[in-house]
Amino acid sequence: AALARAAAAIAGLLHEDVKAETEAILGQQTRRAMLWAALLTGLAMDIVVKLLGDSVGTAATVAGRWTFGLLFLLPLVAWLAWRRRWPAGDASPWRRIHAGRALLNLGVAYGLVVGLQALPLALVMTIFFAEPLLMVMLAALLGRQRLARGPAVVCALGLLGVVVATWGDWLRLGAAGPDLWIAALVALGGALCGALQTVVTQVHGRGVSSASLVFWTTAATALATLAALGMAGPSAWSLGARELAWLALVGALGTAFSLLWVAALKRVPARVAAHVLYLTLPLGALAGWLGFGEVPHAVSVIGSLVVFVAVAALEAWPRGRSAQAGTA
Known about the structure:
Blueprint (H helix, E strand, L loop, with lengths): L1 H51 L5 H25 L13 H23 L2 H9 L1 H11 L7 H25 L5 H26 L5 H23 L1 H4 L3 H25 L4 H8 L2 H13 L5 H19 L4 H6 L2
Helix pairs in contact: 1-10, 2-3, 2-8, 2-10, 3-7, 3-8, 4-7, 4-12, 5-6, 5-7, 6-13
């Protein structure tokens, strides 16, 4: 009887181990699936904005993306409030973190749309892929992190890669005017705003829930872009049902990307997220080639590779104690 009880106990422990291991594997697969879903959703949003092209103006595209995004977020916020999962402190929009994020988000939104409307998809991906380099440089300038000589050289080379990639696209188009370079600068400004938004969130966003950050940033951005659209005149916001449907799709994809990305970053290691993020460059180049016939110039490929290597090297760079103390 004692042997039988011991055997039963061992069998129960083995069952629990198998069950726990199975749940851990399924949980890890779910987290990775969320990360992949965020990546593909963001790429799909960029492709839809690219498909719209000049048929919808920049102001209408940005306003539509964030207004529909706000409409899609409202049911989620109502559900969180009903289930009492919305902290009382997050109910107020009058926080500096929300105003700062919304202001920077305007730069990101307009920079991305201007870039997608005027530049090849692969080049826009390259420019925004350089955002981690800009974030490290901004953190150093703001005194949040010490920037050693090695990482500084890597960041400089990465930004040089952006210039080389843009130059390659200028060579591909032949007699391209300054509009291409202006659009590239606007897109780079959007990436800079995105990097600064990340730094501001890391410094001042502690104690504020992710849902609150996403919702109030979306709400403020939607109101500001609607005001800008109204000042642009009826010619800017006179849209048909087809254009509104496409903008609703952009808003849905953008909202899904924001929620999936924030949720995934809370559940997967930063290095795993970085490795998945690396695929944005080849996927963007492939989508631009198959969907829009944008065959990149050899110089653009070299520039994109330089940016890719710079970001990968920066992620793999050993962080010393002084750098970690600076970000505390």
